[in-house]
Specification:
With about 250 residues, the chain is an alpha+beta fold. The protein has a single domain (about 10-240), classed as L-fuculose-1-phosphate Aldolase, CATH 3.40.225. Helices cover about 35% and strands about 15% of the residues. The protein has helices spanning about 10-30, 90-95, 140-145, 155-165, 185-205, 215-225, 230-240; strands at about 40-45, 50-55, 65-70, 105, 140, 170-175, 175-180. A seven-stranded mixed beta sheet has the order 3-2-1-4-7-6-5, with helices on both faces. The longest helix has 21 residues, at about 10-30. The protein is globular and about 55 Å long. It starts with 9 loop residues before the first helix and ends in a 6-residue tail after the last helix.
Length: about 250
């Protein structure tokens, strides 16, 4: 058996996952999905009751040493004294409620924000945004929690948001941002970028006339195709190169 055929050890699987998570942070920053705030996580590849997320740091500078491990209740594993993200409960609650989800992003993409505050659907209007899904619901923290600091900083709030997300791939947070959930890290990135691009296109189309949304069938068929292994690998290679890590 050659080196290429040698099965990966558990540690190699974990390290590969963490490398992709660091790249995902850099990609989302480069694509202007995540700015100085926002975050991306991935479920532990060998233990579905845990997930990986950076310490509280700007995604553009996240490195391997910044990655922390958490239980689904948001409890930090190990004795790392550094501060985690206050909104880590977004990730844990979604992983707890959705066994199919393997990666989650939370971002404040500026083109998406207006749709958190008006009655205008972010349903896909072009095929590359079909990965977002048929509907993008809006979660309003006021409904259950009244006036807050606008952060999803408890498991109770995380599960409330997760209920609005339901079985979908994206949800908006009124006056705050969005969450995107995917069956793998690459898909979560594609969903996040598709959400941003779709918001920009709707806004640029409206001055010309009313938008025409994709049909349910178009969204389902195009989304299934784009979230397949070949399109995801092609897109991932492009994002990695744009983030300055070509060849990794």
């Amino acid at each position: 058996m050659g080196d290429r055929d040698r099965p990966e050890s558990e540690q190699e699987i974990i390290e590969a996952t963490l490398t992709r998570l660091v790249l995902a942070n850099r990609i989302l920053a480069r694509e202007e999905i995540i700015d100085d705030f926002g975050h991306v996580s991935v479920r532990h590849p060998l233990d579905p009751e845990r997930y990986f997320l950076s310490r509280s740091r700007s995604p553009e500078v996240v490195s391997r040493d910044d990655i922390m491990e958490f239980t689904l209740e948001g409890e930090k594993l190990g004795d790392d004294p550094r501060s985690p993200y206050k909104e880590r409960h977004i990730h844990g609650a979604i992983y707890r409620d959705r066994p199919d989800v393997q990666a989650v992003t939370h971002h404040h993409a500026r083109s998406v924000l207006p749709f958190t505050m008006v009655e205008r659907s972010l349903r896909p209007i072009f095929h590359m945004a079909s990965v977002v899904g048929k509907e993008v619901p809006v979660w309003d923290s006021q409904d259950e929690f009244g006036d807050t600091n606008m952060l999803v900083d408890s498991m109770e709030m995380g599960h409330s948001l997760s209920r609005v997300l339901g079985q979908g791939r994206a949800a908006l947070l009124r006056g705050h941002g969005a969450v995107c959930a995917g069956p793998c890290l690459k898909s979560a990135i594609m969903i996040s970028i598709g959400l941003r691009d779709n918001a920009e296109l709707i806004q640029s189309t409206l001055p010309l006339g009313e938008v025409t949304y994709l049909t349910d069938g178009e969204i389902e068929k195009a989304g299934e195709m784009l979230l397949g292994p070949n399109p995801l690998t092609r897109a991932w290679d492009y994002w990695v190169a744009r983030a300055g890590f070509g060849g990794i």
